[in-house]
Design brief:
- This protein has 374 residues and is an alpha/beta fold.
- The chain has 17 helices and six strands.
- The protein has three domains: 117 residues, no CATH class; 86 residues; 131 residues, Trna Endonuclease, Chain: A, domain 1 (3-Layer(aba) Sandwich).
- 58% of the residues lie in helices and 14% in strands.
- The longest helix is centred in the N-terminal third of the chain and has 52 residues.
- The two termini are 48 Å apart.
Amino acid sequence: MTRLRRTAASSYPALVKDLSGLLETARRSSARAVNALMTATYWEIGRRIVEFEQRGAKRAKYGAELLETLSADLTRRFGRGFSRPNLQRFREFYLRSPLKQIRSTASSNSEAVIRKSQIGVLADAFPLPWSHYVLLIGRARSTEALAFHHTEALRGGWSVRQLDRQIASQFYERTVLSRNKAAMLTRGGQAKPGDVLTADDQVRDPLILEFLGLKDEYSENDLEATLVLHLESFLLELGGEFAFIGRQRRLRIGDEWYRVDLLFSHRRLRCLIVIDLKVGKFTHADAGQMHLYLNCARAHWTHPGENPPVGLILCSQKNEAVARYALEGLPSKVLAREYRLALPDEKRLAEELERTRERLEARGLGDHLGTTRQ
């Protein structure tokens, strides 16, 4: 009897650990189930509001009055959570939902779908937390962008913070514009714990400069002048940690003078960013010229405690193979980035993006769905 008690005592901590894990898993599963049920309910509320509005005569005015009245009545009955902005959000959630097949199913047989015994059918269609959907309907600028970020958040198990970061960095737009969509999708699906800082990650690719309004015929001087004229927008496109220092900064090397198009600094990288603008395509000679600039900048412009400067060559066209062989192995860090002056047709590129994603998943790179972190 004593031996049995001793054996039980020695294994008791393992039992507690085992049961604790079971309870934690159950709690998480329960929370996810409740969240999915509430998300499905919000979608259905939005659907019913839209259908009720469509029966009204003066829809615009009537719709505003309807939300005000509904907010007051539902708040009286159920308490907080049914403000007019929230009801408007439910309405937008239905109208902008990327899950078109659910909308058609619910519209064709709404009573069957919303019955208590069938609510799980609708809830299964919303695998992300409600906070993710709030961010998607509020921030995604198009239906295609919303559907893309929804799929990638699910595929990569993004937290709401990761989703916010990807939308803010225009991950969708850069992916559809990238010549290597598979690499963008694979890299974008990876979490960045602690966000280890590298120049490659800090400089976006490609840069989207549609705010410049330049037409087909423009020179490098035109590009530089317009970037400086729209400096605030350019800084936002570069990222939040860049600071403008100057343009056409002169460098004397031996008996010759050179000019750097644009000079920035990066607060977190703690280094200068030397930018060279190219209207045409990137060539290996551009890498050699930038290496020259960086050696001189490191000797004469770098302050004590700063890291070596980074070169950024902005070009309208970049051959990946040429860029790789020209830039790899240089003592200085040199980046080549394409810029785009306009966004192409989204629908066509979204279809191409979907085909790329399917190829990735067929190769097994998209199977790591994981559990979405909240």
